[in-house]
Amino acid sequence: MKIACVGGGPAGLYFSILMKRQDPSHDITVYERNPAGSTYGWGVTYWAGLLDKLSEGDPESARAVSENSVRWNEGVAQVGESRTVHPGDEGFGIGRRRLLDLLAERAESLGVRVEFEHEVTADRLPDADLVVAGDGVNSALRERHADHFGSDIALGRNVYSWLGTTKVFDSFTFSFVETDHGWIWCYAYPFSTEHSTCVVECSPETWTGLGLDAAGEGDGLALLEKLFADLLDGHGLIGRAQSDRSAQWLNFRTLTNRTWRRGNLVLIGDAAHTTHYSIGAGTTLALEDALSLAGALREIPELDAALAHYEQERRAALLSIQSAARHSAQWYENLPRYIHLPPAQMFALLGQRHSPLLPYIPPQLYYRIDRAAGQLEALRRFKRWLGPRLARTVQARTQR
């Protein structure tokens, strides 16, 4: 099969690796419009379950990813001067650039052609049996046929900025700071022995009240460094590139599509779907897409049937994750509802932010129910049953 992967992100590169391992005779090219090593972003997160799946798909690349990752097993929440520590599942961080370099090197070692600075336009697709659109949330290939794919983008209310720092954290850390204009917070986690990621978020009212919407180059980061001085311990914040002192603010875009395929063109990763960054699942979902698509093509000889199976499988797998991401984003958008709880309760509900039941029950009552559910299996089952039904009922009423 002749395969063209448009976009040199994790999904396209890993899919090319899997397909070459399945059949070395496949003719595979990955087209990336940017130069090598120019990727945006800092570190990405994943959990131990992903490593197990990657090891099944390609042990060599899984080993390389694991060896170049840093690990933590605690969550820390700082609210003003209060600090709460909670043991958790083992988490991993790896630099996005390092991850892409590892996958590109592995792909090329298997015979995949990786062509940087090669932009594929939507009106001139590569001549291939299969074209995999892994060109991100702004996918030109998808937008060329937006009506067919049924693309829909919902903007989040809060604004955020994706930054780096030379402060190396030893755990996944949440820091909430109260200002005269409302709360501002960040999620911080290590991704190498030299750097960590800091994602800063706040409401639009806090953003404009602090003047971050109008701050010039460098001034915005200087203000953020002052606000998070206790967290950063004298370290600075860094923009998209280490020489960049600007802070770019965005509203998160949740992308969904009515269908993921059109003829021999199929969407993968962020071109097909996005989930809010607060659940840290974007890279994992992209790699799982690659595993699913490669598996479908291995098991089902007819292309259209294989693509249909891939889409059905991944849509089903995404339902619970998309729900968790939606409720996680809403938790932060309604932060004043939780932030003044006693620290242990606030951190417990921070960990429960994915729950569809939480928005509809007073926070302290939910906390008591959750504590009791941990000891009573019947109550735990009732909670799992009630949450989705209550969420669907409220959503249906608001749409009338």
Question: Describe it for me?
Answer:
With 400 residues, this protein is an alpha/beta fold. 41% of the residues lie in helices and 24% in strands. The chain is globular. The mean pLDDT is 91.
What would the keywords be for this entry?
single chain; 400 residues; nine-stranded mixed β-sheet; six-stranded mixed β-sheet; 14 helices; globular
Helix and strand arrangement:
Elements: E1 2-6, H1 10-22, E2 27-31, E3 43-47, H2 48-57, H3 59-67, E4 70-79, E5 82-95, H4 96-109, E6 113-115, E7 130-133, H5 140-143, H6 146-149, E8 152-165, E9 172-179, E10 182-190, E11 196-202, H7 204-209, H8 219-227, H9 229-232, E12 237-238, E13 250-256, E14 261-262, E15 265-267, H10 282-299, H11 303-333, H12 343-351, H13 363-373, H14 377-398
Parallel strand pairs: 1-2, 1-7, 2-6, 4-9, 7-15
Antiparallel strand pairs: 3-5, 4-5, 8-11, 8-12, 8-13, 9-10, 10-11, 14-15
Helix pairs in contact: 1-4, 1-10, 2-3, 2-10, 3-4, 10-11, 13-14
